[in-house]
Write a structure and sequence with these properties.
It comes from Virgisporangium aurantiacum. With about 525 residues, the protein is an alpha+beta fold. The protein is about 35% helix and about 15% strand. The N terminus is likely disordered.
Length: about 525
């Protein structure tokens, strides 16, 4: 302002000495004020030191770059997730915090990383697709509302990057009210704070040590398929199956599934036409023929099938599963191929996404990028991917996975006669699909995986911990509804993308001989 007055007085004649004097007075007053400010600043900052920048909370945005999900301005960053503008974003927000805590790019230890999340002023570009998430949440709640004792969780993952596009569950992301008494609410091995009501902040979609997931059933047969193909078997590998199979796995002779003096004897269920007969990987996987996969696993070794599951993206979080999966126990875990271990929708989506990406496994990734307070991208943040399976083996496994969802092998009519529970998925998605569904024999858990070349959706339905002693069964109509919901989410996610098909596997992995 003072400079403008002086310039004006020198270029505009006729204002006289009064204007000049006024301008000089303004300069002196401003100079005096500046001197006070400088003096105060110098008195507050030691010589040679610069003023510390004001702490600023980091912000998490959705994949569109403009939708703010959360500002991490609470002492516990997870607390910020309780204030998201759309409640069901809370599970995704919470997963971002969990992911952040493990990333060396944000500090040397967990405490430093969380401090930087609260005060570092990062701009976090989340992977969540708000449109797809809204549709997923609407569908899970429509089938099983938040008050239902069964938990319906769903995750969508992008093959080749691991980007997590949806994390939906039929619960409110809210801390449940404290129970009247801890002793009355706690069951064996169940945390006293766990709620069986509509409000829950457990990582129901992604899992942790306290929430390891549930049994997936038949989708785990895919790991036997992949292990067998990787060892040299072909998709047309034939076995004359019987309704009951006398395995080599030892169990207690008093067990209801024991025979032959203490051997595990699993039996086929489901479509009566597939309880015995000559089967290949195609129709055995399409109809979840138990005795076929137990026999193949015996040939491979259960430990190799377990290792394949881990290679593709399955994590064992439960203490018992961890013990059973390690040597020497793994070799005798015969029921593993039937999907008896605990898993989550996110793990299932990740494992099948590895196959859809030609054997490249990518860790689940909830962020597309992170910029620091100065706007510079943070190095070391991005997809972490590794080739864990030969591309041709992954492609052959995907081809087997077309049968359960009503799709067709590239080698013709290989899926066998009859219908399958998820036979309408191909028509709903409107694109090539691969995957599997599983309803456990006690009808306590259901899983479904729908994989396309560019997107994989997985969903699980299970009774909430502590409800009815974990014995509440899934009612008629719920499996069909869950399969439809997963297929519709997959359709919506693929709709904006160009149509693509899976790459065909080589014939030598499909058909033995010429």
């Amino acid at each position: 302002m003072a400079g403008e007055s002086i310039i004006e007085s020198t270029h505009r004649p006729g204002l006289g000495g009064r204007r000049v004097a006024l301008a000089v007075m303004v300069v002196l007053v401003c100079a005096a004020a500046v001197g006070v400010v400088v003096w105060r600043s110098r008195s507050a900052t030691p010589p040679g030191a610069s003023a510390a920048p004001r702490p600023r909370a980091s912000e998490l945005y959705a994949a569109d770059g403009t939708t703010l999900i959360a500002r991490f301005d609470t002492d516990d960053p997870r607390g910020s997730c309780l204030r998201v503008p759309v409640n069901d974003w809370g599970y995704f927000c919470d997963y971002v915090v969990t992911w952040w805590r493990s990333q060396a790019a944000f500090g040397a230890d967990e405490a430093q990383r969380l401090d930087r999340l609260r005060h570092g002023g990062y701009r976090i570009g989340g992977s969540l697709d708000p449109r797809l998430q809204a549709g997923a949440k609407q569908r899970v709640d429509a089938l099983l509302p938040v008050t239902d004792p069964k938990v319906f969780s769903l995750a969508t993952v992008e093959p080749g990057t691991g980007l997590v596009r949806t994390m939906a569950v039929n619960r409110n992301f809210r801390r449940p009210p404290p129970p009247p008494s801890a002793s009355a609410s706690a069951g064996p091995g169940q945390p006293v704070w766990r709620s069986t009501g509509p409000d829950l902040v457990d990582p129901l979609v992604s899992g942790d040590a306290d929430t390891p997931g549930e049994a997936a059933g038949a989708p785990f047969m895919m790991f036997t398929v992949a292990a067998a193909l990787d060892s040299g078997l072909t998709l047309d590998h034939a076995i004359d199956t019987e309704r009951v199979y006398v395995s080599k796995y030892r169990i207690e002779p008093q067990s209801p599934v024991a025979c032959g003096g203490g051997y595990w004897c699993p039996a086929n269920t489901g479509d009566p036409a597939y309880r015995s007969g000559r089967r290949t990987m195609w129709d055995a996987f399409g109809h979840a023929v138990v005795t076929y996969f137990v026999a193949v696993q015996e040939r491979m070794g259960a430990d190799k099938v377990i290792a394949m599951a881990q290679r593709l993206g399955i994590t064992f979080r439960g203490e018992l599963d961890q013990q059973l999966s390690k040597p020497p126990n793994g070799a005798s875990w015969g029921a593993f191929t039937l999907g008896v271990s605990s898993t989550t929708a996110l793990d299932l989506a990740t494992a099948y996404a590895t196959l859809a990406a030609d054997g490249v496994r990518c860790d689940p990734l909830p962020v597309a990028g992170v910029a620091d307070a100065g706007g510079k991208p943070v190095p070391g943040v991005g997809p972490r991917c590794e080739s864990v399976l030969r591309p041709e083996v992954a492609r052959a496994a995907i081809d087997a996975g077309r049968c359960p969802l009503g799709d067709r092998s590239v080698f013709g009519d290989r899926c066998g006669a009859g219908s399958v529970p998820a036979g309408g998925v191909r028509g709903t998605v409107g694109r090539p699909v691969s995957g599997q569904t599983g309803l456990t024999e006690n009808r306590r858990t259901l899983s479904v995986v729908v994989a396309g070349p560019q997107l994989v959706t997985a969903a699980m339905v299970a009774t909430a911990p502590g409800v009815g002693g974990g014995r509440v069964q899934i009612a008629a109509g719920v499996p069909e509804g869950a399969i439809t919901a997963a297929a519709e989410v997959e359709h919506d996610g693929l709709a904006p993308l160009p149509a693509r098909d899976f790459t065909a596997p080589p014939r030598e992995l499909a058909v033995a001989g010429p």
